[in-house]
């Protein structure tokens, strides 16, 4: 167990970025990705704001996984991308990712990242943050070369990018917390874990 960790939490995600954030921050965790029909929940929330959807998905993941990990804090997280009033889910395949990137070209992306903590099936905390990222004009040649480099690693990433990798080439400028752009409002998560005694205060 890491020295900063009083109890090992459960990360309800298969995201390598979220796992790396916790690991680098000294938070001990076990990964147990949630099995959840995210698209069905989004359909149920048609008309809701992206931030609300991200929070609901994060909470649903945490609650679902916590049922099978009694007595432990379970962390769920989700990110939603919106561009020009359209919400974009994770790309369904490489061709879909290319279409997303073409739509993002020259636009400003709003990225909403949320997290939730649950224990024994009950949601105890939900937090969220957002960032704005100005996408530069992307040529078809760049999009093809980018996907040659990054696919399929970005297949599970909202926005089809990893800001810590080649995805940084998509943008002219960004405004917002770096961890939020990575996919989780880490500082808020750490604060919530400290309040609950899961990590050293």
Question: What report would you give on this structure?
Answer:
- By secondary structure, the protein is of the alpha/beta class.
- It is built from seven helices and seven strands.
- The chain has one domain (about 10-195): Maf protein (Alpha-Beta Complex), CATH 3.90.950.10.
- It is globular, with a radius of gyration of 17 Å.
- The protein has helices at about 15-25, 40-45, 50-65, 95-105, 140-150, 180, 185-195; strands at about 10, 30, 75-85, 85-90, 110-120, 120-135, 170-175.
- The two termini are about 15 Å apart.
- Strands 1, 2, 3, 4, 5, 6 and 7 form a seven-stranded mixed β-sheet that branches.
Approximate shape: globular
Q: What class do helices, strands and sheet pairing give?
A: alpha/beta
Fraction in beta strands: 15-25%
CATH topology: Maf protein
Biggest sheet record: 7 strands, mixed
Give the count of helical stretches. Answer: 7
CATH architecture: Alpha-Beta Complex
CATH class: Alpha Beta
Mean of the pLDDT scores? 94
Q: What gap, in angstroms, lies between the N and C termini?
A: 16 Å
The run of helices and strands is EHEHHEEHEEHEHH
Number of self-contained structural domains: 1
């Amino acid at each position: 167990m890491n020295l900063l960790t009083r109890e090992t939490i459960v990360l309800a995600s298969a995201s390598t970025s979220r796992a790396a954030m916790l690991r680098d921050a000294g938070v001990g965790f076990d990964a147990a990705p949630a099995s959840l029909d995210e698209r069905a929940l989004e359909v149920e929330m048609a008309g809701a704001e992206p931030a609300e959807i991200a929070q609901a998905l994060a909470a649903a993941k945490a609650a679902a996984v916590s049922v099978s990990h009694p007595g432990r804090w379970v962390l769920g997280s989700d990110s939603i991308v919106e561009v020009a009033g359209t919400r974009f889910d994770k790309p369904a395949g490489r061709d879909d990712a290319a279409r997303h990137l073409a739509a993002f070209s020259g636009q400003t992306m709003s990225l909403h990242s949320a997290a939730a903590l649950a224990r024994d099936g009950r949601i105890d905390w939900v937090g969220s943050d957002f960032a704005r990222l100005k996408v530069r004009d992307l040529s078809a040649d760049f999009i093809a070369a980018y996907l040659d480099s990054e696919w399929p690693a970005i297949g599970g990433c909202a926005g089809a990018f990893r800001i810590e990798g080649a995805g940084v080439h998509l943008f002219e400028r960004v405004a917002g917390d770096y961890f939020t752009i990575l996919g989780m409002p880490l500082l808020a998560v750490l604060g919530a874990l400290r309040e609950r005694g899961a990590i050293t205060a």
